[in-house]
Amino acid sequence: MLGLEMVVLLGVALVACGALARRYPIAPAILLVLVGVLVGFVPHLRHAQLPPEVVLLLFLPALLYWESLTTSLREIRNNLRVVVLTSTALVFATAGAVAVAAHALGLAWGPAWVLGAALAPTDATAVGVLARDLPRRTVTVLRAESLVNDGTALVLYGLAVGVTVGEEHLTGWHVSWLLVLAYGGGVLAGGLVGLVSWQVRRRMDDPMLESIAMLVTPFAAFLLADSIHGSGVLAVVSCGLFMSQVTPRITGAATRQLILPFWALSTTVLSSVLFVLVGLSAQSAFRGLTSTSLLRALVDTLVVTAVVIGVRWAWTYTTPYLIRLVDRRPQQRLRRVGARQRTVSAVAGFRGAVSLAAVLAVPHTVDSGAPFPDRDLIVLITCGVIVLTLLQALLLPAVVRFARLPDDNSVAEEIQLAEELTLDAAIEAVEATAAELGSGEHVVARVRHELGKQRTLLAASGSEGDPVVQHDDQYTSLQLALIGRRREALLELRDAQRIDDIVLRRVQARLDIEEVRISRTDPLVE
Asked: What is the rounded distance in angstroms from the CA atom of residue 226 to the CA atom of residue 56?
């Protein structure tokens, strides 16, 4: 019954934490971590743990794939230099600084590098909480960094663990080869799986089958890359970015109606489970500490957290100025970000699922059979750093106000442009399309009238008190009220047993689609 109890508990926690986060300025991730800590005090539930391989092989591909599908490839290309540097050089710098600090605190070099590699990558899921509060460019850079840096960090982590247990021998050529294999193999595996998925899905006309094909894609990319010792993380990310460019041409409306809500719900649940697991693991790590005193462990955690945060701040306020000395091109000057605005990126260095999965996967023994040095301390420090870096989210509202970020209306402006041009294209094509289809004059006039009404309303959008806008608001309200009345009549027919529940659901689904169309809302955002 433990599994069922955890499912119910997680569901209740997700709903409660989401409601509290909407009411108070607290990130849901922090509340979910707190839930995990509290669960750890219940003896019956504290043993509920996920194996690290489940996080790496099941949770991570799904979450990274969805993040890759929903990010902006154009913004990544425009900020490629920043993304590459933060996802490689900053990872090495963070891992090295943490390793030096941990060694100074008493850890051997091997375990110190394991800790540094585990804490080097930021978390894509945690960064997602910023999406509604920051300009598109800032959010895209943060998300792209956290998507790519996992691959670099996991290569370092694998080397550090291998050297510590006695499986690897550290040489410059060996490290270089592993990095090339990880990046090259991961990108090639992701691209290959993406091409196969694209060719398979473009030949499908069944939304359910296409949804299943999409579900399998990230795991296939991860598996292929892992089989050739490439980076499964980079395979999933490259596959997702590729599919984000080709799927709009091959996926129909019915498939999108099925796929998008499923992935939005699934990834929300998966990420929430991971945050609860962070809290539970942190509590468990404190209880299981045996190699040192609790006071020393707390001091070590604070020191390592300060190093992790300090390296990011130092990077944020040094590398841009060094780059400016080298690159003096005018177009790069236009893209410069002020010192105040960079504070947001400095604070957004959250750690999460990858760090937790990596540290929990550390073996308990080395090749000689001896215990892995200071494993319990490494787990505790990692859990503590994850929790403390997540607490930075509490400072974000104040940091955003301090940063004085410029208003970013680019998304709204591009939406307006897209709607205007697509409507204009439809209006221009009315005559030719009607001739091809053999549509009658009355049909053509009706369609032209409806398109013209939409175009007029679009031109008047944002104008308060405009008669066109007021007329449309009244029209929308009346239509929605009548849809509500149709639903009531539908339920009355079902209650009177004049129609079956199957019929009710089918008609209700059509009314739902009509309601979303009329109200012009995005059900995944509301």
From this structure: 11
Angle at 101 between CA 96 and CA 105, to 5 degrees: 145
Short-list 324, 329, 387, 358, CA closest to 120: 358
Q: Which two tokens stand for residue 93?
A: 């710098």
Do 87 and 288 meet the contact criterion of CB atoms below 8 Å apart? no
Q: How many CB atoms lie within 10 A of CB 255?
A: 21
Per-residue pLDDT of the chain in tens (526 residues, 90 and over written 9): 667 888 888 889 889 988 888 888 777 888 888 998 888 888 877 777 777 777 778 888 998 899 898 888 888 888 888 888 998 999 999 999 999 999 999 999 999 999 999 999 998 766 665 556 677 778 888 888 888 888 888 888 888 888 888 765 666 677 778 788 888 999 999 999 999 999 999 988 888 999 999 999 999 999 999 999 888 989 999 999 999 999 888 888 888 888 888 998 998 888 888 888 888 888 888 888 887 888 999 999 999 999 999 999 999 999 888 887 877 777 666 667 778 888 988 998 899 888 988 888 888 888 888 889 989 899 999 999 999 998 888 888 888 888 887 777 777 788 888 888 888 999 999 989 998 888 888 999 999 888 888 888 888 776 666 787 787 888 889 999 999 999 999 999 999 999 998 899 889 988 988 888 887 665 555 4
Of the candidates 155, 104, 146, the one whose C-alpha atom is nearest the C-alpha of residue 124 is 146
**What does the alpha-carbon distance between residue 33 and residue 18 come to, in Å, rounded to a whole number?**
13
- Start-end of H helices in 351-500: 353-360, 375-390, 396-403, 410-428, 430-437, 441-459, 467-495
Q: What's the CA gap between 122 and 109, in Å, rounded?
A: 23
Distance, CA of 457 to CA of 198 (rounded, Å)? 37
> pTM for the whole thing?
0.85
**What six digits make up the tokens of 130?**
């910023």
